[in-house]
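Subject: for your reference before the review

Hello V.,

The reviewers asked for a structural picture of the protein, and I figured it would be easier to keep everything in one thread rather than splitting it across files. Below is the amino acid sequence we used in the manuscript, unchanged from the supplementary table.
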Amino acid sequence: MPSSSTLPGIFSRLDQASEWLGKSLSWLILIMMLIQFLVVVLRYAFNFNSIPMQESVMYMHASVFMLLAGYTLKHDGHVRVDIFYRAMTARKKALVDLLGTLFLLMPVMIFVILTSLGYVGKSWAIFEGSPESGGIPGVFLLKTLIPAFAGLMILQGLVEMARNAMIFTGRMAPTHDDDAEELL
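And here is what came back from the structure prediction:
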């Protein structure tokens, strides 16, 4: 697990906040699984259907996926095609990660925020609810996860840029174990 103890002030606090958010929201996965199990049992054993229960699973899934993307970035859990990356030194990896975050992640996340604000704003303007009768009246909250996702990714991206800059300049030891990965 990456250490934030050597990161400067604000970056360390942002990194710790990402860790806290990740561990806190990970409980939604268990709750989501239990509710989905209950939905299936109620539907097939008792012929009872609950739209709010079904939609709550969707809301929790979206929350986990969108709000924990920064946590996944922090723990290097994102998909990477590492044909050349695997053989690089820690310093070169830090440079690739730094440049990738600066020139790919940040512009895309800024684009996501800018393009989603109108969409989310319109939903908030009418307090958009579920299209299903009896559904959860909070679609506007669900749509708010889009810019929240991008904002959290930007914050964690800043932490990763600081971490990789420090690794590249030799002010911090590499934070991942290259020997832990094995080809299957």
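For the response letter, the relevant points are probably these. Residues 90-125 form the longest helix (36 residues). The chain has six helices and no strands.

Happy to draft the paragraph if you're swamped.

O.
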